[in-house]
Each structure stands twice: as structure tokens, then as C-alpha cells.
Amino acid sequence: MSSNPQHDADHALAYPEPPAHPNWRRRGTAKPRPLTPDEQKRNRELLLVAERKSRTRAA
Q1: Chain center to CA of 57
Q2: CA triplet 40, 43, 49: central angle to 5 degrees?
Q3: Where would you tag: which of 6, 27, 30, 58 has the fewest CB atoms within 10 A of its CB?
Q4: What span, in angstroms and rounded, lies between the C-alpha atoms of 15 and 33?
Q5: How many CB atoms lie within 10 A of CB 59?
Q6: What angle do CA 43, 31, 22 make, to 5 degrees?
Q7: Would you state the pLDDT for residue 33?
Q8: What is the reported pLDDT for 23?
Q9: Residue 10, SS3 per DSSP
Q10: Residue 43: left if φ>0, alpha if ψ -120 to 50, beta else—which one?
Q11: Per-residue pLDDT tens for 15-54?
């Protein structure tokens, strides 16, 4: 029997994903707190650095 990527993908999708661990769920309806302006600035800077980095990997 030969294996091809399409068959492998179909086989992987045949199994349902397990439910998330109870600790991963938020309790209640509390919304996440908004980011501070300093946190927003840091996130933008980190995003710019990540976009400039090369995506090639060393072997």
C-alpha cells in the first residue's frame, strides 16, 4: 500500500480533536483587560523585528 499526502491528511481528519482541558477555559464572562499603550508599542516593535527576520533555518 503506498502512502500519499492526500491519504495521510484524510486519515488525520478522521479522528476528532480531543476536548480542551478544563483549565484552558475562561471562568465566567470576564473580558480580557485591554493592553496598555506601552504594551501595544512593545508588541508593534516585536512584530516589526519578526517581520524583518529571515525565515530560513540553518540545517
Answers
A1: 20
A2: 145
A3: 58
A4: 36
A5: 3
A6: 100
A7: 87
A8: 74
A9: helix
A10: alpha
A11: 777 777 877 766 666 777 899 999 999 999 999 998 888 7
